[in-house]
């Protein structure tokens, strides 16, 4: 049933309450909904055909041409849109300078069957990363490196955390990110598809640029403080490290992912493999 | 003059007021002082011989063995240390889970004369990066790659921002970071020392791993949204780009720095140059 009024001025309105609750992981998982905030990210979500349940906006959005365009798009797509007072909007927002747009989308239901593998595909498996900024940046990096997908183990920060979405710059809508499978299911997928498992670890003997791979690979990176867990170390085809020259004890995990994926891409491009 | 009492319980105490004011860039620059928060970072600062003016601590620090050790170190070094109530400490803190230690240090006075250049040295020049997490991560990355130093142009986020120090994981104390020079002074230093200027830009024609360099180099990375400014583009020996394969429009600037510096390190190691 469509709402008669398209204005919301009360905190107790159920759309407001729902949107607010979705800042919390448990509520997101219960509702299978998440929030996207900001003009550009909402545009990306629409382009990626994310199903948008409803949107909330304030005068700030309506004041810009791009915002007006977005409202028109919602209208064309039949998305319920509600106007919210600026002050109330600010209370909902997860950002310091809200742009006045908040869309509630349905979880993307992605599993391993979404992956399209080629002879030279790369995957990134993220095992237990805790910082949402790091996870979002890793997804952005994997997308830029042309990875076929990103796999998240249980115990990794929630994909639908607003900070992850923001740091990903919307790339979570552009590359398959799979967070619903068990480690065992990931492993049997790798085995079935002859995907080599390359685990990055400070204790690795080989240097990352000395791996010799053929066919698809998955790069495994672990938690910021503890690295990857035993499960993937035990099942690695190679355990490799990034040599550190200076006094720094470690690298940021997203920077490490960038070094590994882009070096792999470089080597694949220097020795191109023809694919159909 | 040493304080008679070593306990502070009032917000109006001048040490508290000073420490609090140092969360602000202008005050830091006026006083030439900055704050370091957290056990590990303070330990790093002490090891790096940063001059510590005074320290504030709460019961939380005193409760841990490592904290007790830190207090002993302060005592040995004759640093004034003040106990602060937990609640007051939390108000001062820039972090969500304060560890109960807050040291006020004097600015490191570093200029180009601090750099020690060798035949295969790398420098990182950061031109206008705005996010403190990005700047800190870039310094950490440069340190791990064995760079000889990091240069910051005017208009880059303040080196002594607490979030920069935290993201750097203390590496700002381990690698020379120079933020007091003009672009012209940087450039004349490069010219005098035959340092090749390699600028990363999305519009670069050459790929980053195809540069052919001999001798020391400086990698220039620019602002998150706008890239490097014309000054360095105009004076570049090479303008290079990182090829992006996926739909992502760009990389995080700290990830880009990691890819560039580590690839350079790799090539230097594959073709080693003997240095004295």
Automatic annotation (TrEMBL), chains A, B:
Keywords: Methyltransferase, Transferase. Residues 35-111 form the RNA 2-O ribose methyltransferase substrate binding domain. It comes from the Bacteria. InterPro entries: Alpha/beta_knot_MTases (IPR029028), MRM3-like_sub_bind (IPR053888), Ribosomal_eL30-like_sf (IPR029064), rRNA_Methyltransferase (IPR051259), SpoU_MeTrfase (IPR001537), SpoU_subst-bd (IPR013123), tRNA_m1G_MTases_N (IPR029026). SMART domains: SpoU_sub_bind. GO terms for biological process: methylation. One of its GO terms (molecular function) is methyltransferase activity. PANTHER family: RRNA METHYLTRANSFERASE 3 (PTHR43191), RRNA METHYLTRANSFERASE 3, MITOCHONDRIAL (PTHR43191:SF2). Belongs to the class IV-like SAM-binding methyltransferase superfamily. RNA methyltransferase TrmH family. This is RNA methyltransferase. It comes from Dehalobacterium formicoaceticum. The lineage of its organism: Bacteria, Bacillati, Bacillota, Clostridia, Eubacteriales.
């Amino acid at each position: 049933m469509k709402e008669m009024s398209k204005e919301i001025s009360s905190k107790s309105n159920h759309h407001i309450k729902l949107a607010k609750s979705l800042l919390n992981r448990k509520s997101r998982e219960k509702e299978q909904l998440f929030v996207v905030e900001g003009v550009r990210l909402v545009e990306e979500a629409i382009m990626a055909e994310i199903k948008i349940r409803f949107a909330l906006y304030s005068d700030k959005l309506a004041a810009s041409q791009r915002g007006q365009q977005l409202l028109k798009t919602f209208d064309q797509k039949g998305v319920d849109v509600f106007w919210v007072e600026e002050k109330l909007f600010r209370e909902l927002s997860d950002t310091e300078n809200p742009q006045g747009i908040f869309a509630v989308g349905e979880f993307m239901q992605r599993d391993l069957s979404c992956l399209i593998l080629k002879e030279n595909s790369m995957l990134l498996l993220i095992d237990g990363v805790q910082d949402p900024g790091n996870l979002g940046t890793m997804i952005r990096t994997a997308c830029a490196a042309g990875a076929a997908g990103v796999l998240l183990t249980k115990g990794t920060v929630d994909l639908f955390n607003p900070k992850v979405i923001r740091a990903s710059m919307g790339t979570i809508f552009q590359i398959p990110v799979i967070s619903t499978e068990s480690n065992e299911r990931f492993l049997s997928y790798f085995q079935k598809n002859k995907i080599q498992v390359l685990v990055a670890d400070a204790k690795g003997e080989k240097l990352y640029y000395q791996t010799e791979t053929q066919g698809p690979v998955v790069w495994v990176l672990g938690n910021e403080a503890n690295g990857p867990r035993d499960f993937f170390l035990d099942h690695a085809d190679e355990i490799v490290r990034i040599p550190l020259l200076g006094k720094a004890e470690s690298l940021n995990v997203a920077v490490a992912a960038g070094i590994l994926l882009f070096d792999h891409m470089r080597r694949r491009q220097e020795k191109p493999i023809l694919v159909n």
